[in-house]
């Protein structure tokens, strides 16, 4: 019988993979739900979450007994070996310690991005998982979409010849940015992380995955341009529910959390984050008392709302990346410039122009919606399925967002911030 809990090439488990969940917020709960749906038959066997309602909800959804519920990840870590792997979906600042501890205990780990809030801590995690000989997969969900897999396949097949450069846009969406990076948990460099790390570590990692070369030099420019106190319209109130300008304001909280103007699935997802409930009383209280009801021009946010990053890779390949708040929320847009053609992608459709024939071939990957509410274009599901299959079937090639790749792409993010703040080019 194979009862080894760590991934070994060609060595499959003969029982369901057992996974513990650390952090049962929106991301953790979503990942746990996808584990239950995964064709590998993996199961959630424990949860560590300080909030009773979220903890009990996971218990009910996954049939967990009282002894499998923990108020703190430290309790789970000292409870004896209860699982083969652990999903760590805590707040960004709380990734390092549980990752180090569970690696030391021999758990394989699925860790929400970013790895950590400093390059040094990213390296510490990478060293810990190597020393423990466990598998670490980082939740760079963009790698795991059907769209990305098809795009990489086309590039590897030489559809555009040699890759010369890449142009990549991440359109966050005006209301999504206001929710997460003005009013939300990721609004402060002082208390958390720069927006490039919190949001776009996905994209910097994705570029490395697509280009397949080591980054050598980085430059970056960006700032907080709009969501500032000096941009507050005359007559605006401190809270949207009291504001006479709310009907004409693109960022009025009522439009997202009450009226559902931006689509019911998105409203429910973001409203649940803001109000911790979808009932009228919970939403009204959140907009009256909580941070999600405050004016976007009267907050304590300091992260960039627009940023560009330029990267030079080995062999002279270049990439330019733009992330901005001032768009609709939609899929990323990418152009890959090659010696023999151009590839254009929008997160679902891929068009390849062949220079030799001047003919364009179109591929439809039938991706899901772009936002977290929609599962990141199928990336959430793809990540969980490949993580579970990789561990269950002994197939390490399925887990592409491993520690080595993720530490390398995080170093690019930190270098970009150093370049932006210092007005310089940073060598890696």
TrEMBL record:
Belongs to the Gfo/Idh/MocA family. This is Putative dehydrogenase. Pfam families: GFO_IDH_MocA, GFO_IDH_MocA_C. InterPro entries: Gfo/Idh/MocA-like_OxRdtase_C, Gfo/Idh/MocA-like_OxRdtase_N, Gfo/Idh/MocA_Oxidoreductases, NAD(P)-bd_dom_sf. GO terms for molecular function: nucleotide binding. It comes from Phytomonospora endophytica. The lineage of its organism: Bacteria, Bacillati, Actinomycetota, Actinomycetes, Micromonosporales. Residues 153-428 form the Gfo/Idh/MocA-like oxidoreductase C-terminal domain. Residues 17-139 form the Gfo/Idh/MocA-like oxidoreductase N-terminal domain.
